[in-house]
Automatic annotation (TrEMBL):
It comes from the Eukaryota. One of its GO terms (cellular component) is nucleus. InterPro entries: CRA_dom, CTLH/CRA, CTLH_C, Fyv10_fam, Rmd5_dRing, ZF_RING_GID, Znf-RING_euk, Znf_RING. Keywords: Cytoplasm, Metal-binding, Zinc, Zinc-finger. This is Protein RMD5 like A. A zinc finger (RING-Gid-type) spans 328-371. Residues 149-206 form the CTLH domain. It holds the Pfam family zf-RING_UBOX.
Length: 385
């Protein structure tokens, strides 16, 4: 509800700003029109124009400009905009907490790892100067190992931006076996795009020669795709207006760049999205819950940062769910190697420590807290997610 209120207020500000801009342009056009008419009258008067004629034209212009009252019109529209914007600003101040330090938890960081993560992020984004600065200032020479590898990736991507696939084709050729093991068809996609480029910018003979050399090895496994590309040969030089015009869409270049980046990072043992960007994005999504918790706990004179576990769940999107997480329904503790989830004969699951407490340290049969069934520790089996 709070977010919808902010969005509605924003749309009101945007609408008011558009009205103010249109009004300002209308007034400026009116003033400009009157001045142009006055200039036209002066230029069409007798040559040389009489002083009396010029004075009368300028007097008439002054009266028209006074009747337009441009200053008051501009001030009025701007005043309405300022009022609406001021209300929006106050709404933001009430709805959003500017002091986000309340959501900070004092945790011991391994700054060596943090520095490497930050430098790796800049290399991942192609910002090599910033990455080098972090490395030099933090004294982390070991983090430069990824620099040359990400530099190669961005050189390939830069060439692809100008429709040059040669570096990309050389790379997939060098790592063909690993890409096939990963189930990637990136090499076929690159050769398909190169074939389309040859067909658009070269001759039909050039395209046919390229297909025989580079696309023929894929024909047996990708028959439909191969037939489609052979059909394109009939429209050499005019592929844009053919039934296969979809192949010329720029979206294919974007998808190729994304696929190459993903496969390149996979072979490097790196994630497609840098760990720093994922951590920041997840933090931004979870921050409102943490700030609300901090305010509630402060009102109760309790310190949430001293807790080993948050008393409320922090819901994140599916893009942040990288592995299964089990939380014991009895103790509310998250499963770990020391406290793994255990499956009871009744098919309910508790953490090991909860089962040990219920069974008095495995010495007796205990009742499941969720059904009438009874069990012993020896009957429980550890679950692996």
């Amino acid at each position: 509800m709070e977010l919808n209120t902010i969005k509605d207020a924003f749309h009101r500000v945007a609408k008011k700003q558009k009205l103010s801009s249109n009004k300002s342009q209308e007034v400026i056009d009116q003033v400009g029109h009157e001045i142009e008419q006055a200039l036209a009258k002066i230029q069409s008067a007798q040559d040389p124009p009489l002083p009396f004629d010029q004075k009368s034209i300028l007097t008439e212009l002054k009266l028209k400009l006074n009747s337009i009252n441009a200053l008051n019109q501009l001030e009025g529209s701007q005043k309405d905009l300022n009022i609406t914007f001021s209300k929006y600003q106050k709404l933001l101040e009430r709805a959003l907490t500017p002091d986000i330090s309340k959501g900070y938890r004092n945790v011991d960081f391994d700054f060596h790892i943090v520095n490497q993560i930050i430098a790796s992020h800049f290399y991942h984004q192609g910002l090599f100067d910033l990455g080098d600065s972090i490395i030099n200032e933090a004294g982390e020479p070991d983090a430069t190992a990824l620099r040359s590898q990400f530099l190669e990736m961005h050189q390939i991507l830069e060439a692809m931006r100008v429709r040059n696939l040669q570096l990309a084709l050389n790379w997939v050729s060098a790592y063909r076996e690993k890409l096939v093991q990963n189930g990637s068809d990136l090499e076929l996609k690159l050769h398909r795009q190169q074939f389309v480029e040859v067909l658009q910018n070269g001759t039909r003979a050039d395209a046919l020669r390229y297909a025989r050399t580079y696309l023929a090895p894929f024909a047996s496994l990708h028959k439909d795709e191969f037939q489609k590309l052979m059909g394109c040969l009939l429209f050499a030089g005019r592929l844009d207006s053919s039934p296969y015009s979809e192949l010329t869409s720029p979206i294919h270049w974007e998808k190729l760049s994304e696929e190459l980046t993903r496969q390149f990072c996979t072979l490097l043992g790196q994630s497609y999205s840098s760990p720093l960007s994922v951590a920041v994005a997840a933090g931004v999504e979870g921050l409102p819950t943490l700030l609300k918790l901090a305010n509630v706990m402060a009102a109760k004179k309790q310190e949430w940062q001293a807790m080993k576990q948050l008393p409320v769940p922090v819901e994140l999107g599916k893009e942040f769910q990288f592995h299964s997480i089990f939380v014991c329904p009895v103790s509310r503790d998250q499963g770990s190697e020391e406290n793994p989830p255990m499956l009871m004969p009744c098919l309910h699951v508790l953490c090991k420590q909860s089962i040990m407490k219920l069974s008095k340290s495995s010495t007796r049969i205990f009742k499941c807290p969720y059904c009438p069934a009874e069990a012993s520790v020896s009957q429980c089996r550890q679950l692996y997610f």
